[in-house]
Amino acid sequence: MYALCIGFFMTLLDTTIVNVALPSMITDLNASLNDVIWVVSAYLLAFAVPLLLTGRLGDRFGPKRLYGIGLVLFLGASLACGLATSSEALIAARVFQGLGAAAMTPQTMAFITHLFPAAKRGAALGMWGSVAGLATVSGPLLGGVLVTHLGWEWIFFVNLPIGVLALVLLFLWVPDLQPNRAPRFDVLGVVLCCLGLGLLVFGIQNGEHYQWGRVAGPITVAEIIAAGVLFLVAFVLWQASARNPEPLMPLKIFRNRNFSLGNVANIMIGITVTGVFVPLALFLQTVPKLSPLMTGLVTAPASLMSGVVAVFAGRLSNRADAKYLPITGFALMAAGIFAMTFLLGDGSQWVLLPSMVALGIGMGLVFSPLTNISTRTLDRSLLGAGSGIYNTSRQFGNVLGSAVTGAVLQIVLAATGDFTTAVRATFYLLLAVTAIGITAAFAFRQVAAPGVTDSVRASDPGLPVTRPS
């Protein structure tokens, strides 16, 4: 578990560690605001789109193998990111970094669901959620230290020693789960999903850049967004088709009420996390002109509280009334964001610390309990697909958060010329997002805590385990 968490931490760290480096990238790479937003979005998009496929690849070739391949690709791309001399080269390297992360992430959840019985899964998911929460919001602090003292390139170079350690521990400690069957691959589904998400995100994020008009020839932004929506509709229809022998996203899984609502809430937490920290990092270095290190220190309480709270929240998530954990978490996140909209200014930024504490506690109460509640009642035959869908929904939320944040910042900034007003506009949008998260969590059906019977039944995943000698 510890070996997997090191690599998992690294992949999620790279979703936010770049935030404090964005102003430095604008200067050093002669990039625009839209360019550096794409440094964030390219990684998130490449991370999100293949998750449904990489989960199935793990089912076929074994999660340990896929995790190792993804880790090697991630490390190579990290080196390329650090050596990039233009925004275009950096964005391209971030795509490959995201692909590596996509190969790794579903495998961590696969090991949890196969190796831990239901009665102990909450504690394992608590640790998993703690790593997710800590990585997602500790990026600004670590990034601030590295950018201030070494340069933005080192936010990528730091992955190399961590990744090598994760690779060594993977081969020494992690068991080799061998699947009993070789699932088919939904190639058409992958193509439709990639095209849909790619076009949708490109249109939303670059709309203001092209003044919501023509992009190339007769093609307009509106047509690109519409095409993205149509491809996603076609993807859903293909998943429901009787001609699809083994869909990437079996729609019958959404008959499970808690799983469906959990994915809605999961998208909302993804949008919120990215939507808060990207504009906040830009604001702190643009208006009060804090250094990257000070920017990281201002956001550090969120990192600390999220990591600590997630451990205890995961253990409590086995209870029948566990839905009140994410309800409280979303409410605290909303309170923190609401307070920040009024506290933003060019004076002392330490006034933001209570908001950061509330935000961090809220995130810790959402991450691991939401995962346990969403997947606890899934049929074991759907756990593999459920893991891929759940990871995809969170990353899809991150992608949407990055795209929408970039769009709102550029639109409001163009209209008002005031960066503070633009950031406040993104925070107002996030308040609506957290309200949707609270509503979904309230609608969860209460399920009895897993007992001994469940534990015994879940302890045999039906997969032979080959352990290293």
Would you summarize the structure shown here?
By secondary structure, the chain is mainly α.
For the structure shown, list the relevant keywords:
globular, two-stranded antiparallel ribbon, 2% strand, mainly alpha, 18 helices, 4 strands, 469 residues
In words, what does this structure look like?
- The protein is 75% helix and 2% strand.
- The protein is mostly helical and 469 residues long.
- The strands form 2 sheets. A two-stranded antiparallel ribbon has the order 1-4. Strands 2-3 form a two-stranded antiparallel sheet.
- Strand 2 (214-216) and strand 3 form a beta hairpin.
- Helix 7 runs antiparallel to helix 13.
- The protein is globular.
- The two termini are 18 Å apart.
Given as residue ranges, the uncertain stretches (5+ residues, pLDDT < 50) are 452-469
Derived structural class: mainly alpha
Distance from first to last alpha carbon: 18 Å
* Number of H- or I-type helical stretches: 18
Strand proportion: under 5%
Overall strand count: 4
What's the SSE blueprint?
Elements (H helix, E strand, L loop, with lengths): L1 H15 L5 H7 L4 H16 L2 H11 L1 H21 L3 H29 L2 H32 L4 H4 L1 H15 L2 E2 L9 H20 L7 E3 L2 E2 H20 L16 H30 L5 H25 L7 H20 L9 H23 L7 H34 L2 H24 L9 H7 L6 E2 L3
Antiparallel strand pairs: 1-4, 2-3
